[in-house]
C-alpha cells in the first residue's frame, strides 16, 4: 500500500470550499505538496488525468467515510464478541458460585502478567515496518521467528516463577492451582500465535479479517460453557472452554493468513524490528502489569469472591471500550504515515475528531452507568453480584479516559517517541500500586487503610489512569502544538444535563427491567445530542457523516472489496 499518489496541484479547491463541504483542510495539507494522500487508503487518479474540484472533494469524502466504515466494522465485530461474552458471563454468574468465576479471573490475570514477554513491542514494530514499505514476506518471516522465541521465554518465565514460589519458597497458591495455571498458559500461547496473523491484517488495514478471527473465540467458547462446563460443574471445565476458544482463534487466523499470498523466507528484519521494539519493551511489560495487577492485588488482599465482583463489573464496562479500541487500531498506521510525511496539522485534526466522536458515542452510555449502576448489575449479572454496581459506576468513567488515552498513546508511538512511554508507564504503575494499598486492604504493615475492597480497586485504577492520560495529553500538546479541545467543554455540559435528566426520571420511576436500560440510554442520548446540537457542537455535517458510515449497502461493498470480490 503506497503512502500517496502524485497528482497535479488543485489551487481551485480552497480552504473555504473544503470547510463548506464538511472536509477539514487540516487533514489534507498534502495538496500543497502535489500529492493525493489519504491516511487510511489511497485513491489514485488515472495517470495524466487532471481531476476536477468535484472529483477531488468526492474522493476525500469517500475516504473519510471509509475511516468511519472500518471503525464501524471493528465496533460491530467487537460488539458481537462482547454480546457473546456477555452471554457467557451471564451463564457463568447464574450457574457457578462467585468463587469459581473469581478463580478464573484471578488465574487469568496472574498468568497474563507474564504475557508481555510474548510481545515486548514487536507487534507494533512489525506493523510499523510494513507501513514503511518493507517487504511484507520478510516482515512476516522475521516477526514469526521472534514470536516463537518470545513464546518460549514466556512459558519458561511462568514455569520458573511458580516453581520457585511453591517449591523453593514453600509458599501456597491461593485461589488457584497448577492445573489452572497450565491451562491459561496454553490459552495465552494459542492467542499469541494468532497475533502473528491479526497483526498482519491490522498492518494492511484488513479490518474484517482481524475481527472474524477474534469473534471465533466467543463463537466457540459460549456454546462450550452451556453444553460442557455447566453440566461438568467445575472450574477446570470452565477453564478448558477458554483454551478451546483460543485454539479456534489460532486456527481461523492462520487459515485467513494463508490466503494472503505471503511466503516465508530468510528473515532479515529482526534487528530492524528490535531497534524499534526495544524502547517499547519495558512499556509493554509495565502496561501488562498495569492491566492485570488490579485483580491480582484484590485477590491477594481479599479473596476470589471479591475478585469475581470486580471482574464481572469490569467485563460489563469494558464492552464500552470497543469504540476506543476500534479507533486506536486504525490510527496507528495512519499516524505513522502522516508522521513520515511531516503532516502535523493532519494529526492535530484527527486527534480533535477522535476526541469528539468518541465522546458522542460513549458519554450517553456512561451517564446511565453513573445513575443506574445497581439496575445494570442485577439485570445483566444477578442479585448476588450487586457488589459489582459500585465497580461499574467508577470504571465507566475510566472507559472515557482510557479511550482518549488510546488515541494519545497511538500518536506518541507513531511519532517514534515510544521511549516516553516507559517512564510514564512506570509512573502509572507506581501510582496504581500506591492507590491500591491505600484503598483496598484493611491494613498494610499494621497501618489502617480504607478497606474499600472491589470499589477501592476501581478507584485506584481510575485515579492512576486519569493522571497519566493528562500527562499524555500534555505531551501531545508539546509534540504537535494541539491545545485543549474546547468542544469537550460542550460535551461536559451535555453530560451534566443528561445526568440531571436521569436523576429526575429516578425520582418518579424506579427502573428494574432489562428494557429500562435501553429506555434510560435513549433518554440520556436524546438530551445529550439535543443539547450539543443547540450549542452547535453537533453539526449537520457530523450527522450526515455518521449516516453515511452506517449505510449497510456501503458496508457490504467494503466487505466484498476486502475479501477480494467485486463490489
If you had to describe this structure to a student in words, what would you say it looks like?
It contains 20 helices and four strands. It is mostly helical. Among the domains are: 54 residues, no CATH class; 198 residues, no CATH class. A two-stranded antiparallel sheet has the order 1-2. The chain has a two-stranded antiparallel sheet with strand order 3-4. The longest helix is centred in the first third of the chain and has 43 residues. The N terminus is likely disordered.
Brief write-up:
The chain is mostly helical.
End-to-end separation in angstroms reads: 20 Å
Extended strand count: 4
Q: What's the shape? A: globular
Tell me the helix content. over 70%
Radius of gyration: 24 Å
Task: Order the strands across the largest sheet as they lie in space.
Answer: 1-2
Give the helix/strand class. mainly alpha
Mean pLDDT score, rounded?
81
List the helices and strands and how they pair.
Blueprint: E1 5-6, H1 15-20, E2 35-36, H2 53-95, H3 98-112, H4 122-131, H5 136-168, H6 178-203, H7 207-232, H8 235-258, H9 270-301, H10 304-318, H11 322-340, H12 344-371, H13 373-380, H14 388-414, H15 419-439, E3 443-444, E4 447-448, H16 453-480, H17 487-508, H18 514-534, H19 540-549, H20 552-562
Antiparallel strand pairs: 1-2, 3-4
Helix pairs in contact: 2-7, 2-11, 2-19, 3-6, 3-9, 3-10, 4-5, 4-6, 4-9, 5-6, 6-7, 6-8, 7-8, 9-10, 9-15, 9-16, 10-14, 10-16, 11-12, 11-14, 12-14, 12-17, 12-18, 13-14, 14-16, 15-16, 17-18
